[in-house]
Amino acid sequence: MMESVIDVVLSGLILGGLYALIAVGLSLQYGVGRVLNVSHGEFIMLAALATFSLYTVAGIHPLLAVAVVAPLLFVIGFALDRTIFNDLRRTSIDQDHFEGRSLLVSFGLLFVIQNVMLSFWGAGLRGYSILNTPVTILGHRYGLNRVIALVVAVTASVAFYLFIRHTRLGKAIRAAAERPDMAEALGVNRRRVLAICFGLGAGLAGLAGALYSMMFDIQASRGIELTVIAIVVVVVGGLGSITGSLIGGFLLGLVIALVNFIEPSLSLVAFYLIFVLVLLIRPSGILGRQIHAD
Amino acid sequence: MLISTILREEKPALVAIPVSIVALAFAPSVVPESIGISLITVLMFAILALSWTMFSGPTGFVSLATAGLFGVGVYVSAILRDFLPIEVLILIGGAVASLLALAIGMLTLRLKGVYFILFTFGVASLIRSSVAWWETNVNGTVGRHVSGASNEVIYLLLLIIFAVALVGGFLLRHSSPGLALQAIGENQEAAEHIGVNITKLKVLTFAASSALMGMTGAVMATRFRYVDPSIAFNPLFSFLPVVMAILGGLSRLYGPLIGVTILVVLQEFLIREYPYVYLLIFGLTLVAVVLWLPGGLVELTQRLYIRLKIQWIKMRMRITRFRRIRQADRR
Question: Are residues B66 and B151 located together in one domain of the fold?
């Protein structure tokens, strides 16, 4: 009994770390820029496929490839916000109008990115094995790559949290999220901050994608599954709350690990059930709408 | 709205609706068979886009539950096909879909904006994954074979549902409930203050339009012949009608139909050989329309029409001025 509890908790934490990392970028993009970017999973998959190609073609280690892939995605995200979403923000009547329109545009981006990937990499399953020597934790064996992914995910999340909480840019981001007009009056260049946020969200997707490719087989059409995971985590944690999405990620990881332990075939059903129930019972999620931690 | 006003103001529509339905009824016997099969796809998406627009157009609540409601109809038909005639299946499919929509509608009253969009998407995915789980773990199958119906029968049935959707959409636009829906879309609080029963109206419209989606699903099951959850609940059934409707324009009844025709023609040309290109174009269209053409093609043609008219008036003014000068010269 104790053994299985430990097993469920550990695999829940590993899953949760990945969920949190997948979700935190989306959370940032929605929390500050109010763009519910449903093409987030596509960004992750793009990074995963790029990492795969860098490793199999050029022989670059995935943990090094991150240094190329993540900045590249940052640039793509930054440019997208500067052009498309900035335009939308300018021409929308109010916040709700903008959110609806940007959601539709990101659905469009989903199809664009997905089909660019499909034409480039094809529809097949891709994968490589690296660092998959088993390590033993508390008497249970896990792949080294999963443990590394968990460590990187937690480190990145904590680093990001500290960045948002303590640096000058982080404070500007929080200010722009909470009181846009006031932040602007105090000299925050809101357009730039928003573009940086969207870029950071995409960059975090890049990091998540590189790690994801180390752990699972990847496929160009699977991005949407990741988007759904990210959205569920973000909604559970509270739309727009970064701390919430970290907590939500681990919470959901534990729940899914538990469901996997009891009845693996129900995990997808459980996933959507949690999503729908959270939206119904507490649409604001665990931590409500806030960008900082209290 | 009074019948006399409809008669006075909507003469083109009163002619166009019956004429287009009669024309579509005779189309399969005139055009080659391959186009006749494409017409089935056109009708299917036309019904989905029209019924999506009935609720989401005026209210601005973007629903992504279409795949779920359509898929429920498909499954009703797939399960009961061997026991009941197809006409009855259509009615049951419609009824089940509208009951489901009724439940969704009642549950989502508090949700606004992105929460509503996410919820409808979540419900459609929940139904899909639940059906998939049920089929594999309880029935021990992935998909089901459905005994097919002939293309003529499928076409005729879809045409009848399409006619209902078209007339229903027309009546909705010209009735007080339709105007009240419009009011909800523009300002929900204000609509409530002038006495619109928001809850009832939204839920009933959603349920009624969903019945059409379920009915279409029930017919299409006999066209697919083999269904599994990834076919019946394909998320594209949620997305395509939305993009088609927005591309055409929501402000007119015929707007979505324009979008449907364009994208289905594009699909028929591209999907076999270049499926990725088709969906790429589809995505770019969505981005471009939301960014630059919020009113869709309907608005674009109206703008062009007005510009042409202004040019025409200017030209006539120039001609009259020219004539006057010439007459003055002669004198």
Answer: yes
Which residue in chain A is spatially nearest to B280 when comparing CA positions? Answer: A112
Of the candidates A275, A294, A293, A273, which has an alpha carbon nearest to the alpha carbon of residue A285?
A275
Interface touch A100/B117, C-beta < 8 Å = yes
Determine the residue type at A106. Answer: S
- Same domain for B305 and B182: no
Record: contact A265-B123, CB cut-off 8 A: no
- Same domain for B306 and B174? no
A133: which DSSP letter?
A: -
pLDDT in tens, chain A (294 residues): 677 888 888 888 888 888 888 888 898 888 888 888 989 999 999 999 999 999 888 888 888 888 899 999 999 999 999 999 988 988 888 887 888 888 889 989 999 999 999 998 888 888 777 766 677 766 666 777 778 878 888 888 888 888 888 888 888 888 887 787 888 888 888 888 889 999 999 999 999 998 888 888 888 888 888 888 888 888 888 877 778 888 888 888 898 889 888 888 888 888 888 888 888 887 777 766 543 333
8-state DSSP, A219: -
Verify whether the Cβ–Cβ distance A279 to B277 is below 8 Å.
Answer: no
Q: Would an 8 Å CB–CB cutoff place B113 in contact with chain A? A: yes
Number of domains in chain B: 2
Query: In this structure, how many other beta carbons lie within 10 angstroms of the beta carbon of residue A155?
Result: 11
Smallest Cβ–Cβ distance between A266 and the set B119, B133, B276 belongs to B133
Which of A84, A111, A231 lies closest to B283 in CB terms?
A: A111
Q: pLDDT digits over A84-124, tens only? A: 998 898 888 888 788 888 888 998 999 999 999 999 888 88
CA-wise closest residue to B56 among B222, B206, B187: B206
B108: nearest CA in chain A?
Answer: A280
Residue B151, C-beta contacts closer than 8 angstroms, at least 6 positions apart: B28, B36, B37, B40, B223
Q: Which residue of B has its CA nearest to A114?
A: B280
| pLDDT tens readout for residues B93-119 | 999 999 999 999 888 867 777 888 888
One domain for residues B149 and B282:
yes
- Tell me, yes or no, whether B187 and B311 share the same domain: no
Domain that holds residue B319: 295-331
Residue B122 at interface with chain A, using a CB cutoff of 8 Å: yes
| Same domain membership, residue B193 and residue B215 | yes
Give the single-character DSSP code of B195: T
| Total count of residues recorded for chain B | 331
Q: A137 by DSSP, 3-state: which? A: strand
Q: Is B10 helix (H, G, I), strand (E, B) or coil?
A: coil
**Cβ distance of B239 and A283 shorter than 8 Å:** no
Q: Are residues B83 and B230 in the same domain?
A: yes
Same structural domain for residues B36 and B171? Answer: yes
Q: What is the pTM of this model?
A: 0.85
ipTM above 0.90, yes or no: no
